[in-house]
């Protein structure tokens, strides 16, 4: 099993850009970064998935308009503005299909159109 330091190293390697910088995967900023879990622990069928590097990304945080807070909002209108929205949804689908469809259902309740929902389901 990976230690938290090893997991952070794997995540950092994955998101380091071609210039060697570690940036927010939601907007590209390099300040006030925090590790975000894509699937929340409580929803995971297999709790071991929670600490998998695939479940973790790096988002800027600190205000309601920052990527970490946008992702935590569960609101399509905010989440979908992140550069990594589609990639995150794809990862969630692979990690926890039940959580994925709960999110899709929430988006539907928020008035997101069937065309967009179908596109997300087919990621
Ligand atoms: Zn950001």
Describe what this molecule looks like in 3D.
- The chain has helices at about 5-15, 65-70, 75-80, 85-95, 95-110, 115-120; strands spanning about 35, 55-60.
- It has one domain.
- The model has no long low-confidence stretch (mean pLDDT about 90).
- It has about 120 residues and is mainly alpha-helical.
- The chain contains 6 helices and 2 strands; from the N terminus they run H-E-E-H-H-H-H-H.
- The structure holds zinc ion (ZN).
- Zinc ion binds next to strand 2.
Which secondary structure elements does this structure contain, and how are they paired or packed?
Blueprint: H1 4-15, E1 33-37, E2 56-60, H2 67-72, H3 76-79, H4 85-95, H5 97-109, H6 114-121
Antiparallel strand pairs: 1-2
Bound molecules: zinc ion.
Kindly give the count of domains. Answer: 1
- What's the arrangement of strands in the largest beta sheet? 1-2
- Approximate shape: globular
Uncertain segments are none
- How much beta, percentage-wise? 5-15%
Query: What percentage of residues falls in helices of 4 or more residues?
Result: 40-55%
Radius of gyration: 14 Å
**pLDDT averaged over residues:** 90
**What does the largest sheet look like?**
2 strands, antiparallel
Number of strands: 2
**What are the distinct ligands in this entry?**
zinc ion
């Amino acid at each position: 099993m990976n230690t938290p330091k090893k997991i952070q190293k794997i995540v950092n390697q994955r998101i380091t850009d071609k210039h060697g910088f570690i940036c927010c995967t939601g907007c590209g900023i390099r300040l006030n970064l925090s590790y975000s879990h894509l699937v929340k622990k409580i929803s995971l069928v297999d709790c071991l998935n929670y600490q998998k590097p695939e479940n973790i990304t790096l988002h800027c945080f600190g205000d309601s308009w920052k990527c970490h807070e946008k992702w935590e909002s569960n609101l399509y209108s905010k989440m979908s503005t992140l550069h990594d929205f589609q990639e995150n949804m794809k990862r969630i689908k692979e990690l926890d299909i039940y959580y994925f469809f709960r999110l899709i259902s929430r988006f539907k309740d928020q008035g997101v159109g069937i065309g967009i929902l179908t596109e997300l389901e087919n990621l």
